[in-house]
Amino acid sequence: MSGEGNYINIRYSNDCLKLINDTFQRFLDVDSINYQSELKKTLEKIGLFFDLDRIYIYYFSKDPTFMQIECQWNKKDIRPKRTIQEEEVVYALPWLIREIKNNDFVAINNVEKFPAEAVFEAEVFLKEGIKSSLIVPLKSENKLIGFVGYENLSKSMTWEEEQIKILRDISKAFSYTRARIVKKEAYESTLNGQAILLNNCESQIWALSNVTSYATVNEAHAKFFGKKKSDLEYQDLYDIFDIDTANKFSEHNWELFRKNEPAEKELEIKNCKGENRLLKIKSKPQRDEIGNIKYLICTAEDITEQRLAERSLNKAKEQAEAANIAKSQFLANMSHEIRTPMNGIFGFLELLQSTNLSLEQKEFIREAKSASEVLLHIINDILDFSKIEARKLTMEKIRFNLRNTIEDAVSLLAPKAAEKALELYTMIKAGVPEEVIGDPSRLRQILNNLISNAVKFTERGEISVTVDYLEEENEIAVLSFEVKDTGIGICKEHINTIFQYFSQADASTTRKYGGTGLGLAISNELVKMMGGEIRVESMLGEGSTFKFDVRLKIAKGASEQKFAFEKLQGVNILIIDDNANNRKSVSSYLQGTGMKVFEAKDATSAITTILSNANTKNKISVAIIDYQMRDMSGYELATTLKTIPFAKDTKLILLTSVTQKGDAKVAKEYGFSSYLGKPVRRDDLLGCIAIVLGLKKEYEKEHQLITKHIVKEVKNTLKPRILLVEDNEMNRKIVISMLKSHDMTCDVAVNGKEALKAVSEKDYDVVFMDCQMPVMDGYECTYEIRMLEGDKKHTTIIAMTANAMEGDYEKCIEAGMDEYISKPINFDTMFNMIEENIKESGLVTDYNIIDNNIDYFVETTGLKKDDAKEILEEYIKCLPNLLEDINNAIDNNDFDKLAGVTHELKGSSGTLRIISIHELAIKLEEAALKQETDECARLFAKIKDLLH
User: Fold this and answer.
1) Phi then psi for 91, rounded to 5 degrees?
2) With contact defined as beta carbons under 8 Å apart, do 651 and 665 qualify?
3) Where on the chain is Phosphohistidine found, per UniProt (predicted)?
C-alpha cells in the first residue's frame, strides 16, 4: 500500500551496514539462555535507528491456526503491542495473513486505504492507532514460521525500497537464530531422553569398536560385572576381565563381526557374584559410508530363570500330555464300554415294547426306557464337560438348513410335551436365512437342552421357541433364539448360578426333577463358541425365558423353495385354533406365499368365517383345524362342515399334538384331506397345502390322505439291500430284530474281511459298519472297499461306533465313510438313513416317458415295440441319479458340473427321440454355460414336470 506522510530516506551508510553486521554477529553467539535478552536489545537498536514506535515478533504455534508474540519492544510513551503473552487466533486478521503468506513483505503506508476485504484489519489498526506498518515474513527452510512487524503510531511514514530491504535482511537473523536454538533444544532433549532410557533400561546395551574393545556401555551392562560405565568405556576386554571371561567375549564378538549382519546368540558367562548366567545377545552392525563396520551394537537379556522355568514347564507339559492322553483313552474306553451294553438295553426294550404286554408291563418298559435315556444323557454331558475342560471341543463349519435343524430339535421334544398336555410351537420369523454355515449338531444340542428343561419344569401351559434375524455384517448373520415357558420359574438369587457347572436352582429342584446341572453350563460354553451369549429372565411361579444369540455365516447360493409360491396366489386359508400363539405360528409360515390368511379362535367363529365368505373372492379354500379346542373337537367341526353345502369344497387339514397308528384312517373318515403333527414344520405345511389343492403331483392318488410320513411310506414299500458288519452278537441280534419289525432284512458280516467279500459280490444300498472289530476293523475295511469301487460306484457306508470322543467323526469320514451313528443307536435315525439311501429304481412307474414316447421311438428307429420298451426302461433306471446330480449342481451353483450332466441328459434323450426333454436339455445347457441360476431352476422344473 502507498500513502502520504513524512518520508525517511535511509541510505546504505556505514551506520546502516554496522547495524546489520552487529545484529548478525550478536546472534552468532546467542544461545537459549540469553536469546530473549539479546533479541530485545536488538529490537531496541533497530527501533531507535529507524525512529520506529514499536517492533514485535510473532511465531506460529504447533497448531498453525494459532500464533503468539515471542518478543516486543516499544518506545517509552508508546503502549506495547500485547500486555499479555498468550496464543491468538491467526485468522482474526484473514486478509493480512494471506498477504504475509503470499508476499515477501507487506507495507501499509496509509490505513485509510485498506482494500474492501480488509474489514477486520482496518478495525484493528484504527483501534490500536497504527498509522503505518511494515510486516516481514520469517521463514526456515522455505517454510513460513512467523513474522516481524515494524509500526509507527505517532506519525505516518512511507516505506522506501532501501529501507524495506535493510529490515528484511535484518529479519533473517531472527528466523535463522530461532531455528538454530529450537533444533538445538530438540537435539539436547533427545539426547537427555536417550540417556535416561539407556541408563535406566534393565536390558544390557553396549557398542564394540572392534573384537576386544568397548566404545560405550549402559549402566545395566556395567552393573552386571560389578563395575561403573567409566571402567568399561573405551577399554580393552583383557584389561577389564579375567582371562576366561575375556576369551569367551572375544570369541563371541569375533563370530558376530565375521557375520557382518544382524545376529542372535546365547552366551553363558559369570557375573560379578561368580554365578553362571545365560545371556541372550542380539547384535547389529553400524557401518560407515563405504560399508565397513564402525560399531557393533549389542543388547542382552538375562534369560537364566526363563530357561529354568521353560525346562520345568516342558517337563510339566510332558507329564500333563501323558496324563491327558491317558484320560482321553480312559474316556474313550469308558464311552465304548458303557455305550455297548446301553445299545443292548435300548434295543431289547424297543423290541420288548412291540410285543403283547399287559398295561403294567408296558408301564415298566416305559420307566426302564426313561431311566436309560437319563443315563445316556448324563454320559453325554460328562463327555462334553471333559472336552470343554480340556479345551478339546471344536465347532464344525458345514453348510446346513437352519430351519430344519430348529424344527428337528423342537420335534424331538414334542412327544414329551404332548404327554403333559403342553402346547409346544415354533416361530421362525421372516428374514431368518434358510441355509447357514456352522455346527448344526451343537446348535441342536443347545436347543434340546433348553426345550428339555422347559418341558421338565412346566406342568401346564405352553412352551414357545422363537427365532429372529437381528443383523448381518460381512455375510455373518446374528440370530436371536428365545425359549419361553410357563413353568415353575427361578428365584432371583439363583439366576446367576444356573449357568455354572453342577449347579441347579436349588437342592429341592435337583431332588424333584433330577439332573446333573451340566446342561445349561455346556450350553453356555457352546453359545460362547458360536460368538454369542446366553441369558435368562424369570419370575418364580410365572415361568422362564432363555435367550441366546449366535453368529453364523450365511451360505451362498442357498436353495430355493421346494415349489413356486406363485401357484398359491389367491388361495384363502383359515386357521382354526383356540391358542392364539399357535395361530400366530402357523400364520407366520404362510407369509410371503401370496395366500390370504384368516384366523378363528373357535369352531363357531370358523363356521361364521366360512359362511360369510362363501360367495365372495375370499371363499375359504383350505381350513387348518386344531384337533382339540374348548368348544368343539376338530373331528366334530369337520362333521359339522360336511353338513354345510357352502363348505363342501373346502379342503380340511388336521393339526394334532400326538400322531398314532390309525389316526390317518380316522381322520380320513371324518373328511380330512391331510393331517400333520404339532409342532408344524413349514415345509410340511406348505407341501401339504400344495398337494391337497392339486398343485403338486407327487404321491397324488384318489382319496389318499396326505401326511408328512407319506414319502416314507412309499419308500418303505421298497426292499432295501442292507449289510450289517458287527462282531458283537448282542448288537447284531438287536439290529436284525429292529429291521425285521419294519419288514426289512439284512446280510451279516462279523468282521471287515467278510464285509469286503460281501460288497465285492453284491450291490448294497447301505452298509452299517462297526469300527472296532477283529481280523480287519471298520476303517481298514472301508478303505479297501473304496479302493475296490474306484470311480465305478459308491456304496453308502455308515459308521456304527460306541466311541463318542473328539475326532471320531472326522476319523470315520477320512476313512471314506459317508455318515456316522453312535451307540446306543437311535433307531429312528437309522431308519431315516436307510430311507435316504434306498435306490429309487422301483419308482419308474411314476414316469410317463414310455407311454408318451415309445411310438415315435419305434417309428424313427424301426425297432420292435418290445425292444424299444426294454431300452426305455433301462434308460429310466438311470434317470433318478442323473436328475439328482442336476438338482445338486443347481443348488450349489456348480455350473461346470451342471453343464456336464445336462449335456449327458441332452445326448441320451436325443438318442431315444424324447424330443420334449431333449429341447429343454439344450436350453438348460446353454443357461448353465451362461451361469443363469434362475433360468436353470425354471428349465429343470419344466423337465421334472414332463417326467412325472
Assistant:
1) -90, 25
2) no
3) 903
Average pLDDT over residues 31-53: 88
Work out the widest C-alpha separation in the chain, in whole angstroms.
136
* 236, amino acid identity: D
Q: How many CA atoms lie within 13 A of 870 on its CB side?
A: 5
Distance CA 147, CA 882 (A): 87
- pTM here is 0.45
Find the mean pLDDT for residues 332-355: 71
Cα distances (angstroms) measured from residue 932 to each of 561, 903, 923: 17, 16, 11
Q: Which three cell numbers stand for residue 133?
A: 506498518
Strand (E) or helix (H) holding 530: none
The Cα 609–Cα 574 span in angstroms is 8
Predicted local distance difference test score (pLDDT) of residue 899: 86
Model confidence at 376, pLDDT cuts 50, 70, 90, reads confident
Residue 636 is given by DSSP the state: H
Contact at 8 Å (CB) between 3 and 109? yes
β partners of residue 6: 157
Q: Would you tell me the crossing angle of helices 933-947 and 865-891 to the nearest 10 degrees?
A: 150
Torsion angles phi and psi, residue 618, rounded to 5: -95, 20
Alpha carbon distance 168, 136 (integer Å): 6
DSSP 906: H
| 3 state DSSP class of 776 | coil
Residue spans of alpha helices (H) in 356-401: 359-389
User: Do residues 279 and 302 lie in contact, with contact meaning Cβ atoms separated by under 8 Å?
Assistant: yes
CA distance 621 to 649: 7
Alpha-carbon gap, residue 105 to 150, rounded angstroms: 11
Integer Cα distance of 554 and 437 in angstroms: 6
Q: Which residues pair with 767 in a beta bridge?
A: 723, 797
Q: For residue 801, which of 731, 898, 698, 703 has the smallest C-alpha distance?
A: 731
What is the rounded distance in angstroms from the CA atom of residue 470 to the CA atom of residue 424?
24
How far is Cα 708 from Cα 848, in angstroms, rounded to an integer? 25
Query: What is the residue whose three cell numbers read 373318515?
Result: 669
Whether 484 contacts 446, CB under 8 Å = no
Looking up cell 563396520 gives 293
Q: Which residues contact 856 (CB under 8 A, 6 or more apart)?
A: 913, 915
Is residue 433 a contact partner of residue 477, using CB atoms and an 8 Å limit? yes
CA 891 to chain centre: 23
Residue 559: exposure state from Cβ atoms within 10 A (0-12, 13-18, ≥19): middle
337 class by beta-carbon count within 10 Å (0-12 exposed, 13-18 middle, 19+ buried) = exposed
Q: Strand, coil or helix: what is 6?
A: strand
Of residues 335 and 745, which shows the higher confidence score?
Answer: 745
C-alpha cell at 899: 453343464
The grid coordinates listed for 831 are 431308519
Q: Which three cell numbers stand for residue 587?
A: 400364520
DSSP letter assigned to residue 236: B
Contact between 174 and 39 (Cβ < 8 Å): yes
C-alpha cell at 105: 513483505
Cβ proximity of 289 and 313 under 8 Å: no
Q: What is the pLDDT of residue 845?
A: 39
Query: What are the tens digits of pLDDT across the range 452-510?
Result: 889 989 999 999 999 998 887 778 889 999 999 999 988 887 787 788 765 555 444 44
CA pseudo-torsion sign 589, 591, 592, 598 = positive
Could you tell me the pLDDT band of residue 35, with boundaries at 50, 70 and 90? confident
Distance in angstroms (rounded) separating the CA atoms of residues 796 and 819 = 8
Residue 151: strand pairing partners:
54, 133
Q: How far, in whole angstroms, is CA 580 from its chain's centroid?
A: 36
* Residue range 22-43: mean pLDDT, rounded: 83
> What cell does 901 get?
450332466
β-sheet bridge partners, residue 401:
435
